[in-house]
Design goal:
15 helices, alpha/beta, 40% helix, single chain
């Protein structure tokens, strides 16, 4: 009977071995081959130890090693289960068919981006960058940039874009299996990043003022160890914090001093709304993250963050062990653009144009009885009943919009429309076509 059980475990679970290393390797191999799928419960430690003829300590060591690599997670009484795999295919946008007007990519209008010119003086490569990773002049410019909006700028750091920065913050603070409060709907790359780190997303509903206090309170009760949100230009819904919403959220977080608060102000200079930041006003552990890709260009893979002292030290410690620093050439280019009067004027024109284009589309949709959301930022979110019907229907009219599935966890369906390149006369035509698509299938639109 004993040999039968061992053989069953080896076949059914794909778990073999007599050492912790061999057992963990067999589990990881079974996961990669698909024998063990996400959510599958592994045998309890004592049971597997008995079936493999090893000590419980050997199995416990193997499970601990698997948890450390994010292969499995422990869910209390739910036992040890295979971690959720990164759903790349479900969130990656489909290829844009030729000949369609692209309103799905969330990118800025190239007409409002400055020309990227390499710095005139190249770095001599002296090797001192690791000990002095940030250009003092750029640090000063960043502090002024942040403090202009009321964000404390005493402790600042840089990274290779906002996703790089957020990913490093989460990886040094949390462990595989920990829960993170995430906006729903929210930015699809952030949702995938959390999964890739072996963390669990707990959805937090949003509205026109950003994340909702009662939803955040529920997430905190569920045991989240971090919360990631956008205070304005929320992607894809477009919400922005009011002062009242900021104060309500601060009250909720006051009872969770150990939770890391990550504020992703990704479109700060073109958001079209004032900043009402939670950072520096209540949470003990916090980071306010900014990037320049939406107003200076996506090739500038650079981001800055202001943090509390502990968060800064942990982030920079991990950065030192990996890439070490952000290229001084890149920092010089960013500094030149941030301090250039012509570039600032161009960014101001972009901010005004995006606001006009966003308002124009919302107005045209509203005149046809179609509700949309977009109080700030580069996109408009339109709730629908059937995303595929709307996306395919608009495709027949020459438009390509983003289906909402890759932005959602539990929230209702919708489509995201990027407005950065949509002038008012085009907005009127799009709204007419949208109404026609909804009329063609009365049960498509959800109101």
């Amino acid at each position: 009977m004993y040999w039968y059980i061992v053989e069953y475990v080896a076949i059914h679970y794909g778990i073999t071995g007599t050492t912790a290393k061999a057992i963990s390797a067999s589990v990881e191999r079974a996961v990669s081959e698909g024998t063990l799928t996400p959510g599958t419960a592994l045998p309890p430690v004592r049971r597997l130890a008995e079936e493999l003829g090893v000590s419980p300590g050997t199995v416990a060591t193997a499970y601990k090693e698997l948890r450390g690599r994010g292969v499995v997670v422990t869910r209390g009484r739910g036992g040890t289960v295979v971690a959720e795999a990164l759903a790349v295919a479900s969130r990656r946008p489909p290829r844009i068919p030729e000949g369609l007007r692209n309103l799905a990519d969330g990118q800025p209008d190239p007409a409002f981006l400055p020309a990227l010119v390499p710095p005139a003086r190249l770095s001599p490569g002296s090797g001192a960058h690791r000990s002095a990773p940030r250009l003092p002049a750029l640090e000063d410019a960043v502090r002024r940039w942040l403090e202009r909006d009321g964000v404390p700028g005493r402790h600042v750091t840089f990274a290779h874009g906002s996703l790089d920065l957020v990913g490093r913050l989460l990886s040094v603070e949390l462990r595989p299996g920990d829960a993170v409060a995430m906006e729903d709907p929210g930015y699809h790359h952030l949702l995938d990043l959390v999964t890739a780190l072996g963390l669990r997303s707990v959805p937090v509903a949003v509205d026109g003022e950003g994340i909702r206090p009662e939803a955040l309170r529920a997430a905190l009760r569920a045991g989240v160890r971090a919360v990631v949100y956008s205070p304005r230009a929320q992607n894809p819904y477009g919400g922005c914090f009011s002062a009242a919403r900021r104060d309500a959220l601060a009250e909720v977080l006051r009872g969770a001093p150990d939770v890391l608060v990550v504020e992703n102000d990704h479109a700060a200079d073109v958001a079209g709304a004032p900043l009402h930041s939670l950072c520096g006003t209540g949470p003990a552990r916090w980071a306010h993250v900014r990037t320049v890709t939406k107003h200076l260009g996506s090739d500038l893979r650079w981001a800055a963050a202001a943090c509390d002292a502990t968060t800064l030290a942990r982030h920079d410690g991990r950065l030192l062990l990996t890439s070490g620093w952000v290229s001084h050439l890149l920092q010089t280019a960013v500094l030149g653009l941030m301090t250039d009067t012509g570039t600032r004027d161009l960014v101001g024109r972009a901010r005004a144009a995006y606001g006009q284009r966003r308002d124009a589309l919302l107005g045209e949709l509203g005149r046809r009885g179609i509700a949309g959301h977009g109080a700030s930022g580069l996109n408009v979110w339109v709730p629908v009943r059937d995303e595929s019907a709307v996306v395919n229907g608009l495709r027949t009219h020459g438009w390509w919009v983003a289906a909402g599935a890759r932005f959602r966890i539990d929230t209702a369906p919708g489509v995201r429309i990027t407005v950065t390149d949509l002038v008012p006369e085009d907005a009127a035509r799009l709204a007419r076509d949208f109404a026609a698509v909804l009329g063609d299938s009365a049960d498509t639109y959800g109101g």
